[in-house]
Automatic annotation (TrEMBL):
Domain Flagellin N-terminal: 3-141
Annotated InterPro entries: Flagell_FlgL, Flagellin, Flagellin_N
Location (main, coarse): other
Entry protein name: Flagellar hook-associated protein FlgL
Native species: Pseudenterobacter timonensis
Length: 316
């Protein structure tokens, strides 16, 4: 088989081109820090990287959702802390109202104090978040949860949020379940009746009773005592319910914190997996780049020397 000068030339040029391509490829890896810059570099790693990238995006989305959930749950907890304090203040007023030595004017003064607490509680029940959405209105966040008379006007479904791949969490409570409900074992009267469950109506009835003159009328005094006992019992039941809701919020905040830690660990693992798939091994790529550069220089020299062996050169 004859080996022509043209064939030798083409073979050497092909060797130089291939060597230069590999050298440039190593240079690209060094400039980008990525071993896989296009699917053709490593089809299997590239396809795995796409799947992993989607998992990373999903994990980031859940982290953002947990941030929103934590803010919402924390806001509700802060509001209910104030509600707890207000109910306890109302209880103190009611207990003091049972003092038989108080005059009608004294009770009227207590009624004014209770009215202020009642107004404060209504304002807390109609708290909005930073975007003007009512936090106790369920999904009807655009309008107040409670009317002025204490009637609930919000939605019946509490807001839920997907906070992890397998966890959908209720991140709010409707005002109806907070301010118009007792626990499963409320305090009752001698007939086993728990009485009015609406916190605002409990206070309204107590305020009305305190404003009613009873001096010198035993029948009215006895009725007043019964109403005060009922109000005290109702406030105690309402407080127990609010504390139960707060315990649920505390549990959710604790769970969100643990899910955040799990998400952080997952993100760290995914970052490491992605690095293993597509990032360069700097020791390896620098060594390969240097060796390929030397090989390319050798190819250039061989090509130059080959030109001097050409038959055309010999015939000169």
């Amino acid at each position: 088989m004859r080996i022509s000068t043209q064939m030798m030339y083409q073979q050497n040029m092909r060797g130089i081109t291939d060597s230069q391509s590999r050298w440039l490829a190593y240079g690209e890896q060094m400039s980008t820090g990525k071993r896989v810059n296009r699917p053709s570099d490593d089809p299997i790693a590239a396809s795995q990287a796409v799947v992993l990238s989607q998992a990373q995006a999903q994990n980031s989305q859940y982290a953002l959702a947990r941030t929103f959930a934590t803010q919402k749950v924390s806001l509700e907890e802060n509001v209910l802390t104030q509600v707890t304090t207000a109910i306890q203040s109302a209880q103190e007023k009611i207990v003091y109202a049972g003092n038989g030595s108080l005059s009608d004017n004294d009770r009227a003064s207590l009624a004014t104090d209770l009215q202020g607490i009642r107004d404060q509680l209504l304002n807390l029940a109609n708290t909005t978040d930073g975007n003007g959405r009512y936090i106790f209105a369920g999904y009807k966040t655009e309008s107040p949860a409670f009317k002025d008379d204490g009637t609930y006007a919000g939605g019946s479904t509490p807001i839920s949020q997907q906070v992890d791949s397998a966890r959908n969490m209720q991140i709010s409570h409707t005002g109806d379940s907070v301010f118009n409900k007792f626990t499963s074992n409320p305090k009752t009267d001698e007939n086993g009746n728990a009485g009015e469950t609406n916190l605002f109506k409990i206070l309204d009835d107590a305020i009305k009773a305190l404003n009613e003159p009873i001096e010198g009328e035993q029948a009215k005094a006895d009725a007043f005592t019964a109403q005060i006992d009922q109000a005290n019992r109702g406030l105690s039941n309402s407080l127990d319910n609010v504390l139960t809701v707060r315990a649920d919020l505390g549990t959710k905040l604790n769970e969100l914190e643990k899910l955040d830690a799990l998400g952080d660990d997952r993100a760290l693992g995914q970052t490491q997996q992605m690095s293993d798939l597509v990032d360069v091994d700097w020791n390896s790529v620098i060594s390969s780049y240097t060796m390929q550069q030397a090989a390319l220089q050798a190819s250039y020299k061989a090509f130059t020397d080959m030109q001097g062996m050409s038959l055309f050169q010999l015939n000169k």
